[in-house]
């Protein structure tokens, strides 16, 4: 097969290209230049030129064709602008998930296919399997990577069957140490290269600093909510239906300024997210304070003391029906159906036992134990026996 590898200049995609070459495939390397604005990043912390040079050296070492494609305009339009818009609404986006859905396995994939490729490969720690349905149709399964510490299936949670049918993840069966060992044996320049942290175009600039390039700072108040806040101690009501119970369990507590005490000021509620404890400039507490809610209309950030603060936790979350995505469409729930799964609401979170519920009113995930810092805009993903079945944007 002719396979285009997204060569990023890192060790993972380097070894992915080598493994495919060893399997006898015709391998072509493409380096994807994403959006980068030197005015808002520490250029030496996000050296796309260095990355492209490293990718070129790997391609030359392996003896495979290499090309750079500029996708910066597309990346800005579909990822960066989306990110700004979501934060402005008080939501917490995950641009890495969107990058895979909108860029790597969309436009990048189309580019590869136009070059005559049969498949596209990346250096993700994930695995693929397939089987024939009763109708004789190929069904593709996205499985967690073998290395539980590096499993990146969550970042691929918005892909569909067509995208999976054209994808390859050659290092999914390996651990990170094994990948580095292969690269060292080959003498690849990327063998000891550190893993990239976060989004390349942000580098190591703080997120608020980055967002302030587009979102206007506006001074607001930080209000502390205390553990004796009455709603925390009210008995759970009796429900007439399961959907009514789930609506209650997934509902966010709405705070008012009068519910607590003003303890500080901030530069804009849009620069923060639920569960954040750093960057608040709050002192005088035994434990760290965590953001439990944001009032975007009145520009108020609400905090509570301690990682076990009751306002941080919810037992269920809701996903609006249009935002529910199934990789395995054959397993999609019908109204009134439920399914026991394991789920996570962020990358590298331990998978938690949960039950899915599908109703006309919405899609719900109820966890066995309450989850901390469930934020609007994040992606929840659900698994069964190590297979990622679907995902959705938290309402």
Secondary structure blueprint with pairings:
Elements: E1 2-6, H1 11-22, E2 26-33, H2 48-62, E3 66-70, H3 72-88, H4 95-114, E4 119-121, E5 126-132, E6 138-144, H5 161-165, E7 167-168, H6 176-186, H7 207-211, E8 220-224, H8 242-250, E9 261-266, E10 289-295, E11 300-305, E12 313-319, E13 324-326, E14 338-344, E15 352-359, E16 362-372, E17 379-384, E18 387-393
Parallel strand pairs: 1-2, 1-4, 2-3, 4-7, 8-11
Antiparallel strand pairs: 5-6, 6-18, 8-9, 10-11, 12-16, 13-18, 14-15, 14-17, 15-16, 17-18
Structure in words:
The chain has 395 residues and is an alpha/beta fold. It folds into 3 domains: 2-210, Rossmann fold, CATH 3.40.50.620; 215-312, Roll (SH3 type barrels), CATH 2.30.30.280; 313-393, Translation factors (Elongation Factor Tu (Ef-tu), domain 3), CATH 2.40.30.10. It is 24% helix and 28% strand. It contains 8 helices and 18 strands. α1 runs parallel beside α2 (48-62) and α1 (11-22) packs across α6 (176-186). The chain is globular. The mean pLDDT is 93.
